[in-house]
Automatic annotation (TrEMBL):
It holds the Pfam family BPD_transp_1. It comes from the Bacteria. It is found in: Cell membrane. The chain crosses the membrane at residues 12-33, 69-90, 102-124, 136-156, 177-203, 233-253. InterPro entries: BP-dep_ABC_trans_perm, MetI-like, MetI-like_sf. Belongs to the binding-protein-dependent transport system permease family. GO terms for cellular component: plasma membrane. The keyword Translocase does not apply. The lineage of its organism: Bacteria, Pseudomonadati, Pseudomonadota, Alphaproteobacteria, Rhodobacterales. This is ABC transporter permease. It comes from Falsihalocynthiibacter arcticus. Residues 65-254 form the ABC transmembrane type-1 domain. One of its GO terms (biological process) is transmembrane transport. It is a multi-pass membrane protein. Keywords: Cell membrane, Membrane, Transmembrane, Transmembrane helix, Transport.
Length: 267
């Protein structure tokens, strides 16, 4: 009897989990289209698009979105070109202390960001890049490069070494081999790496709090600044939902590469 009821119990548990997961998103979406502060032309509880109009009319929110996008783009453009040669070296070349160095990279990645805020602040102050978009993106790279090396090293190790040897016999240099032959083979791994870089940079707030005062604030800090004595919850929900859209678009557009990447790399 229990065995026959098992499929039904699995379906029920799955539906309950989906409802539990989606209910906050449904409530968030409904509130984003609801007026939560009374205005001369709008009563509380009325349906409105004014919350979304407020995102683009508010210069602080608009600049916060642009800053977050800039963090992600700069981070990816620096991290992946640095991580690919390093991952190739760890995968193909044996040298003294290679395993220890690789573990040191991983250990650095699991270090809480708040531990490094003071030395990073002092270094960036000396370089004059505090309170800048580039400074925040560079701080993100410090944490994304180790995890990117780890991810890409697994993908490169899955590529047969015979491909390297054949390319070298044909006269290709190592940089040309990486560009022309290796990158197409690990395209899924690059997609997974870019996804992880995006996730870290888009939601990171510790460095943004320490390294910015007026310029370069990301969307996460802009949402936090909306809370006050009289909070417009509808606007907060609209900004929150809008901040989720880039991740959804990225996930949908790269779904095939990500699916293959997670299977091949076992991330």
């Amino acid at each position: 009897m229990l065995i026959r009821a098992l499929p039904f119990l699995k379906t029920t548990a799955l539906l309950a989990f989906m409802v539990f997961t989606c209910l906050p998103l449904v409530q968030l979406t409904l509130l984003s289209f609801t007026a939560t502060l009374a205005t001369p032309n709008m009563d509380v509880g009325s349906l409105t698009l004014g919350n979304y109009r407020g995102i683009w009319t508010d210069p602080n929110l608009r600049s916060a979105f642009l800053n977050s996008i800039a963090y992600v783009l700069i981070n990816i453009c620096i991290t992946i070109p640095v991580a690919i040669p390093a991952a190739y070296a760890f995968s193909r070349i044996s040298f003294l202390g290679d395993k220890h160095l690789f573990l040191a990279f991983i250990a650095f990645r699991i270090t809480p960001p708040v531990v490094l805020t003071l030395p990073i602040f002092q270094l960036f102050s000396a370089l004059g890049i505090v309170n800048s978009t580039f400074g925040i993106a560079l701080a993100h790279c410090l944490f994304n490069v180790p995890i990117s090396i780890w991810i890409l090293q697994g993908f490169i190790s899955a590529v047969p070494k015979e491909m390297d040897e054949t390319a070298f016999i044909d006269g290709y240099s190592r940089p040309m081999f990486i560009w022309k032959f290796l990158l197409p083979q690990i395209a899924s791994g690059v997609a997974v790496t870019a996804f992880f870089c995006f996730m870290f940079s888009w939601v990171e707030v510790v460095f943004a709090r320490i390294l910015t005062t007026t310029n370069g604030k990301p969307i996460s800090m802009a949402i936090n600044a909306l809370f006050g004595f009289q909070t417009d919850i509808g606007l907060v929900m609209a900004v929150t939902l809008a901040s989720m859209l880039p991740g959804v678009v990225l996930l949908f557009s790269m779904r095939n590469h990500l699916s293959r990447g997670f299977k091949i790399g076992r991330v």
